[in-house]
Amino acid sequence: MAQPRVALWAAEADDMDDDLQDMSLGNYGQNGHYDDTFFQQPQIDEATLMAMQQHMAQQAAFAQIPDVVKGFIVHFHQAVLENNLPEITIAYESGWNKYTEKFYSRTEWPEAEIIAPLVNDDPIFLILYRELYYRHVYSRLQPNIDDRFHSYENSCELFNYLLNSEGPVKLELPEQWLWDIIDEFIYQFQVFCTWRSKVKSKTDDELLMLAEGGPVWSSYSVLNVLYSLIQKSKINEYIAAHQAGKTPEEIAEIVGEYGVRPLYRHLGYFSIIGLLRVHVLLGDFTLALKVMENVELNQKSPYTRVTACTVATYYYVGFCYIMLRRYPDAIRTFVSILNWIMRMRQYHTRSYQYDQISKTADRMYALFAICNALSPSRLDDNIANISKERYGEQFAKMAKGQEDAIPAFKELFLYACPKFINANAPPYDDPVALNTLLQSSPDTSSPDFDSSALSDPAQRHLSLLLSDVVAYTPVPTLRSFLKLYTSLGAKKLANFLDADEEEMVQQLMVMKQASRSVTHVPGGKGLLDGQTASTSDLNFVIDENMVHIAESTVGRRYAGWFIKNTERTQKLYDDLKNQPLPPPSKSAGHGANGAGAPVAPVQTDVKPVRTGQPKVAWGGVKVGA
Amino acid sequence: MASWVSPPTRTELIEDLVSGVDRYNPSNVSILEDYLYHQIRSQEYDCLANLAILKLYQFNPDLYNPDVVINILIKALTAAPLPDFNLCISLLDERPINASLDEPDPLPTLLPTLKQLSDLLYRCRFPAFWEVYQSDELENLRDNYTVECVGFEDAVREVAIRAVKATFTRISADRLASYLDLSGSELVAFVDKKGWKMDANVVSIPPNPDNQIEATVVQENIKLAQLTKVIAHGAST
């Protein structure tokens, strides 16, 4: 039967029969005269034509996937289905990255629809696959507006599945992946906000989509996800119960069916850190520290297994302290994490996160330099040295406190600060307002463009820090003068500084103020708590017009050196005593040699004069003992 | 510091709001705004609750009430040298253009002034502060806002007193007068109320941890535990 190929796909048999009637009349294009009805086929055919083309495209794309990748996906899927945590971890950490490097370093992975047949259209695995797919797009390629919207929808589906299924899901995923899910979610939110605020560079299509976008990547929905995960997993109750030392049964009672599962517990904890980060990005530093109320920041906590999470936590906490003017606390935080990173570095050189951790560490060195300039302390020489190595030039300017200090602070702050975002979108849904905005913003290419400061939150926070810096700039000079005296008349000091006396007195009050900071005391509840403590070794007071100065110095530390060397000497003596006596047939000189040889390696690091040459008298003493 | 995080004057209702997720619910903004006005009238101060209001404004621009923001900033001024004022500024995102207000927004004109005042207080430029504050340009601020805030000027005087207490053991009355914007009998009354002594035009400030100084040498504290190994060895041979 002469059937045109297209009719095979037609949905409605009736129409097909009609067409058949016409076509079997021999108008099959042989004589060039086409029956019009042939081309007025119902829309169904067009749709199915497209479906067929799409299917063929998919098949072609599927065929293009290398076999190893297909095998990997099947294996990965199998591991996820079986909740085989070690296999999943391997597939996730090394497998995915290996094939990305090999085949997909510059393109996207195959779309979820294409690989769906390999995994029997398993919706959960496809959601997870898409999560990885979009993460790859965001990090290696440039996401377009469709990517952004779709990745949001996929994230919503994932969290919906996790939170709104009937009861906790049976899925088990490695901790690293769970942290990456949360981390990536917030990262995509942050880049979306930054991209969204650039009104000028939008195409018409994008403007349309943004106008109708509505809740896509809204602050409320992101916060909602994080708070829901925290509440569902009852992570705060879990931590409190753990700290109170309750038994596992009691803890299970308290946290409920979701909280006992490691998946939810980890997601809950990572959501707390996620909240810390989102609040900092939105400029709310006190709330950021407040959500960390129950979390104990120490490196023995069981949650430090995910390095990236720990590093992020300390970075954001330290930054909050800076904005709260609690520089000693910030310094302490940075020193602690930077030391930890140095120790952990050896385990991470092969990890794909190494770069990210190094970059964050570098920013923390910059922030440390800022804090050290504003509140000098002698806490950790090692970290201070590394910081000076990297930022010595800026640090010198900042510490001197003259006019050069301001640009140096600005440079380091803008390099090291988080990528702040605006909570609200420009008015895409209101064309009139949008036009006003576009016209009112001046030319961004002029170098003196200062009102960009308004729409860029980072500038706003920078200006707050700079106003503090300006208050501080005369202090280093004052310090250097005060160090030279025990008491000094105000008038005399003013003469030295070439300044007005009253102004200088006020500056002294600022200096006094700067030497007092709120610091966290051990045993204090939560990160916001603290007491005022003195942070400077130079103390002074003004008696009407006389400045009295008292400096605290650190006495010379000799105990360590003496104890260490005493112990070494004792060990050496013990070793010597335990040496076998020299064979009596040899001469005394040789005997001493025999005794000398094993001792030689120990001798090199002992301070007292003990030459390599054996002494006959020594050997003599031995024999006598 | 604990009382800054959780002031004893905060009610349980506010505590629940500030510490929980209800703080994001826009319909709760009026509770927090009422609490602000209570603080203004009764000379109380609760920084975190006020920051919660600013956060609600950040997410819901249509809730924005410029008078509330100005009052929050005024209250934060009196907390110097704590960073409260800066924390408030951090939460003031740029206003979207299509925001609808019945009257023109007074905040953009007042904000630079308030920032300047905060700056002067942080840099302890108290005479300059009073000069700027009493000047004609700030008449709007004084007549419409700070007059509502009970005890605003006294609170600023407290800021000055905090700085003076830390730095001086004795201070000339004239200098103190310029810091407090008080003179003559008013100054005497103020000093009296504080319980400080004044004679021959010099005010004595009672000792406190900040204005008592002594040169200390941080001595090394050698503990017995560090020496046990050495001593034990010496004893055994």
TrEMBL record, chain A:
Highest taxon listed in the record's lineage: Eukaryota
Protein's cellular compartments: Cytoplasm
Keyword Protein biosynthesis: yes
A GO cellular component entry from the record: eukaryotic 48S preinitiation complex
GO MF entries: translation initiation factor activity
Annotated spans, Disordered: 575-625
GO terms classed as biological process: formation of cytoplasmic translation initiation complex
Keywords associated with the record: Cytoplasm, Initiation factor, Protein biosynthesis
Any Pfam family the entry gives: Paf67
InterPro entries, per the entry: eIF3l
Family per similarity comment: Belongs to the eIF-3 subunit L family.
Subunit: Component of the eukaryotic translation initiation factor 3 (eIF-3) complex.
Entries under HAMAP family matching the protein: eIF3l
Task of the protein: Component of the eukaryotic translation initiation factor 3 (eIF-3) complex, which is involved in protein synthesis of a specialized repertoire of mRNAs and, together with other initiation factors, stimulates binding of mRNA and methionyl-tRNAi to the 40S ribosome. The eIF-3 complex specifically targets and initiates translation of a subset of mRNAs involved in cell proliferation.
Protein name stated in the entry: Eukaryotic translation initiation factor 3 subunit L
Originating organism: Favolaschia claudopus
UniProtKB/TrEMBL annotation, chain B:
Stored InterPro entries: ARM-type_fold (IPR016024), CSN8_PSD8_EIF3K (IPR033464), eIF3k (IPR009374), PCI_dom (IPR000717), Transl_init_fac_sub12_N_euk (IPR016020), WH-like_DNA-bd_sf (IPR036388), WH_DNA-bd_sf (IPR036390)
Keyword flag Ligase: no
Positions in coiled-coil regions: none
Chief localisation class: cytoplasm
Gene Ontology BP annotations: formation of cytoplasmic translation initiation complex; regulation of translational initiation
Superkingdom as given in the UniProt entry: Eukaryota
CC annotations in GO: eukaryotic 43S preinitiation complex; eukaryotic 48S preinitiation complex; eukaryotic translation initiation factor 3 complex
UniProt-listed SUPFAM superfamilies: ARM repeat, Winged helix' DNA-binding domain
This protein's UniProt keywords: Cytoplasm, Initiation factor, Protein biosynthesis
GO function terms (MF aspect): ribosome binding; RNA binding; translation initiation factor activity
Location in or out of the cell: Cytoplasm
Residue ranges of domain PCI in the record: 45-221
Subunit structure: Component of the eukaryotic translation initiation factor 3 (eIF-3) complex.
Function (record text): Component of the eukaryotic translation initiation factor 3 (eIF-3) complex, which is involved in protein synthesis of a specialized repertoire of mRNAs and, together with other initiation factors, stimulates binding of mRNA and methionyl-tRNAi to the 40S ribosome. The eIF-3 complex specifically targets and initiates translation of a subset of mRNAs involved in cell proliferation.
Similarity comment: family membership: Belongs to the eIF-3 subunit K family.
Descriptive protein name: Eukaryotic translation initiation factor 3 subunit K
Organism: Favolaschia claudopus
